[in-house]
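Consider the subject:
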Amino acid sequence: MEPLFLNPLFMYRIWGGTALKDKFNYEIPSNNTGECWAISSHENGDCTISNGKYKGMTLSQLWNTHREVFGNAPGDKFPLLTKILDANDNLSVQVHPNDEYANVNENGELGKTECWYIIDCDDDAEMIFGHNATSREQLSQMIANNEWSDLLRRVKVKKGDFFYVPSGTIHALCKGTLVLETQQNSDTTYRVYDYDRVDDNGNKRELHVNKSIAVTTVPHIENNNTYNTASTDSFNRTTFVSNEFFSVHKLEVFGKCNFRHDKPFSLYSVLDGNGTLTTSTSSFELTKGDNFIIPSDLDEFTLDGNMEIIYSHI
């Protein structure tokens, strides 16, 4: 079996820019392109396979008709979604529901736990992560009174940082950040605050204050940012998070290294550098911006080159 390469999809966002073209040489549709849906089977953005015998099929079609490719993993939906986000301006302050709330209130949608790897950012970049309310009543009151500077927690970010963003976390990327996002396969976002900005037609974007208050974790829970790194002469592998939703790792390749693959499937994104991926029957050139899936029956493969890769699996 070969790796499955994906054709990415691009989304206009009011806060987007041109970094996806400038940094990855992607062909973007506008100068306000905020999101690259790099590996996605969601109905709002379903990537197609670009190589091999499944070329031309969407990822959702492949999941539904050839589940053996994914190790017969359970579930009605492909569980993960990989994006690259260009925050050329501040994103809305937002929060995502968990599986139970989304299933009831969003027509069976999955919840949205996600995580961010900072690919690049401005020197003074920051993000909103968490809040200072001690009760849901206080949260509701501070939102109603527009006490954003007192309510929202801001943290500095730098290139190479990682943030785990469980459902229920108030958060927002801020201007000047380029991020790889690994998330549950969901497109449900509740906006708490959007800086009172308007679109090209003078309209403010919809807010979802009541739902936001209902799903926000109160009080905010800080994450334990302890990572494990394994090193050899040809690669470093850092495990950022491993839980019921996904495991996410950074792979820094600086030579030739052999890997055994024992997961139902794994999602790979090349963030920098170039090299090759070799199986028992084929070899594939890899370059910055490539996104692919290692299927269940690709038990062994070799990476060779100088690359920075983020990969994930269930």
Summary: The chain has two domains: 4-215, 228-313. Helices lie at 19-24, 59-65, 99-105, 136-144, 148-151, 209-215. The mean pLDDT is 97.
